[in-house]
Specification:
Layout lengths: L10 E7 L24 E2 L10 E9 L5 E11 L5 E15 L13 E11 L6 E4 L8 E5 L3 E9 L5 E8 L1
Antiparallel strand pairs: 1-10, 2-9, 3-6, 3-8, 3-10, 4-5, 4-9, 5-6, 7-8
């Protein structure tokens, strides 16, 4: 249950990404992406997410129904300058629920569809995640406890979707 938790607004985790990311293959701090507006890592210890015990990620893309984001990788840096972990890996599939407006910026979105199916194929948190409302042509969510992570970043492969957006909230 989500009772007695802080009301935390959604923030952009990835915004209007239209090309593949450069994969982080050497897990050292100097390879961690720079924080940029709406596309870089999110600092979980800063407002508005500093009160979150857990996180929920939802996403949408611009393409057609049933197109698949062939892979996502959720990466995190452990507290106190700890190592970079691969938290979750998997696949996301667009459904039929239309996303005409960006929920945070209110910008118009052309040919936008919410992700309705999320799968987890690996990662450190793979056994500790809950997938909310997956496969129902609505808006799916990826829910997990924040545990020991200070920063979070989503790396994506866009070989089959035109653009990708991910939003994040805490509970």
């Amino acid at each position: 249950m989500l009772l007695n938790t802080a009301r935390i607004p959604f923030v952009s985790l990835r915004d209007a990404v239209a090309s593949d990311d450069t994969a982080i293959t050497v897990f050292k701090r100097s390879n961690w992406p720079t924080v940029t507006a709406n596309n870089g890592p999110i600092k979980l210890k800063d407002p508005p997410l500093h009160d979150a015990n857990g996180l929920i990620i939802s996403a949408f893309g611009t393409d057609t129904a049933d197109d698949v984001l062939t892979s996502y990788k959720l990466l995190g840096v452990a507290r106190q300058n700890g190592p970079i972990y691969t938290l979750l890996t998997g696949v996301m599939t667009l459904g039929t629920t239309v996303a005409t407006t960006h929920p945070i910026t209110s910008a118009a979105v052309t040919s936008g569809l919410w992700v309705d199916t999320i799968t987890v194929t690996g990662g450190l948190f793979s056994g500790m995640v809950e997938i909310l409302d997956s496969g129902n042509n609505r808006i799916a969510g990826l829910k997990f406890d924040q545990t020991f992570i200070d920063e979070i970043y989503m790396e994506i492969d866009l070989s089959t979707i035109n653009a990708f957006y991910a939003i994040l909230t805490g509970y």
